[in-house]
Amino acid sequence: MVNQFETPNELPHNATAEKLVLACLISNPQLLEETISILNAKVFYRKEHENIYDVIEKAYEKLTKIDFLTLMDLLTKTKLIHYLGEEKEIKKLGNQLIDNNCFEDYIHLLLDKFLRRSVIQNSASLVNLVTDQSTSIDKIFYELNNFLDLINKHYKTNKQNSKISYLLEDFISTINDNTIEKNIKSGFKDFDNITTGFHRSDFIIIASRPAMGKTALALNIATNITKATDTSVAFFSLEMPTQQLIYRIISSETQIAIKKLRSGQLNTIEWKKIKTAALNLSSLKLYIDDTPNITFSILKAKVQQLIQSNKDLSLIIVDYLQLISNNNNKNTNRHQELSLITRSLKILAREFNIVVIVLSQLSRNVESRNNKRPILSDLKESGCISQNSLIETKLSKVQINQLPQKKLLTIYSENANKHLVLSSINKVKNNKQKLIYKIVTQSGYSILLTANHKLKSLAGWKKCNELNTIDKIAISIEHNYLSYNKTHFFTKSRKPIVLTKIFEKILLIHLVESNIVYDIEMHSINNFIANNIVIHNSIEQDADLVCMLHNEDYYKLPETKNQEKSLAQISVLKHRNGAVGTFELEFLPQFAQFINKTI
């Protein structure tokens, strides 16, 4: 009989680190926003520490407000507090990590110990499984795969915030070995000159008014990439059935007009062109899915299936954003749904390390202007706020036009659990001068903002021009709000506060004047607090690249149009990784084809 593999009596752990991290989280509950997705109770080796974190985690998920006293009370009631010490000791231990700026180091120390314990424990189970002759090979491989998935998941989590010294070593090694990943070229020269190609994990929006040719452009990009590389591309068409897309692809390849293809009146030469094109196209790794009314969860499942069967999937295209369903969530309005969907698409791009291109319809506001060339605000689901708006930071309220541009900064916003927490910003944007409205609540809170900026109401996110005096909007207040002094609350400097949220009725809404306005691009949450009012951001903030497609010929009279060729303008209005700019492509409408502009 084979001796079984036994695990050591003492597995890797650091009880002091566990105690320090717990004390830090209790003393500084706002840190839970950063740790809740990384740590779970099983990361703690000591059972009493595991139980303490479990209480903290459940409190974070269930309570609308969470602070030091709340957590202390819960841990006292569950008779767990004595494992950490007295109130003063907990505060001292918790602030020790913050003061020394080493909280993240201790988080990764816990993950390191947990990873080592997991390897030992699972390895022991696998050895015992393998030595049992009655266990099938299929069962062994199944358990082995589960083990590797578990380890890989936590290994990635542990590496997530690697120190820059290690990241630089990897970067230099990659360059020396000439294994740096190549960007994905669109096949359009001027487009690639501006973007340097699409970067893996990029989320890209291509937007236009209807009938500008964005579907044709996206199809052209898809075929260009699959022709030039050995990678796979998936095209999710929520609007057009596969047959219509095939007509467009064949027309573009053969230069036979779509109208003629549909008529079926083709000569021998044209049939030969079609057969040749079909033979060439059949070798491309291009996948087309025309499932209508698709939800994001189904879309993600389909991408996962493609990746499992095609490890070289480099890019997906979704046509178009506004047709993606909301997973039957009836508690959100459409503006909120689109924000959730764009955030999910960005996460999808990062999770699978692929490029995600989503097409989007622009609002009708474009048609009301003399100059119909689209601008970035035409895409936004929200607008801008006055330059005098006060933004809630950790230690003070700061006017939006005075927020530091080149300094890491956290401001208050509402997280997925509907708690008001500190969240980091990417940048502050000046959107020049616009007409603004004033909203005033019953107790006197007010804000100046553009008509299309969204606020949090009881019915979900609503634009300013959709609100009226029967609506209630979200207001941030101090934890002990019944006794606080509003005048003091608006002073420039104060001690760190804990914010909670109530809904307050709107007293009046009226047009004020034209004023300079600003907006904030958040890092991970699509809202922030200004003048104590919870307001939203735009769908474009999730995008790494935003392109607008415009064709002036669309607005010309039929007799003045060139039916065979027109110039389309593509404006790169946002580029997180590089330059912006405008270029032109020739559009051949009869073939649904874009080509590089000829000199």
% residues in beta strands? 15-25%
Class of secondary structure makeup: alpha+beta
Low-confidence stretches: 480-496
Tally of separate helices = 16
**Through-space gap between termini:** 82 Å
Neighbour order of strands in the largest sheet = 3-2-4-5-1-18-19-20-21
CATH superfamily of the largest domain: P-loop containing nucleotide triphosphate hydrolases
Largest sheet: 9 strands, mixed
Into which percent range does the helicity of residues fall?
Answer: 25-40%
Question: Could you name the key traits of this structure?
Answer:
3 domains; 6-stranded antiparallel β-sheet; Rossmann fold; Endonuclease - Pi-scei, Chain A, domain 1; DNAb Helicase, Chain A; 599 residues; alpha+beta
Description:
This protein has 599 residues and is α+β, with helices and mostly antiparallel strands. The protein folds into 3 domains: 15-164, DNAb Helicase, Chain A; 189-370, P-loop containing nucleotide triphosphate hydrolases (Rossmann fold, 3-Layer(aba) Sandwich); 383-537, Hedgehog/Intein (Hint) domain (Endonuclease - Pi-scei, Chain A, domain 1, Beta Complex). It is 36% helix and 24% strand. The protein contains 16 helices and 21 strands. It has a 9-stranded mixed beta sheet, sandwiched between helices. Helix 1 (15-27) packs across helix 6, helix 6 (103-131) packs antiparallel against helix 7 and helix 10 crosses helix 11. The protein is flat. The relative contact order is 0.11.
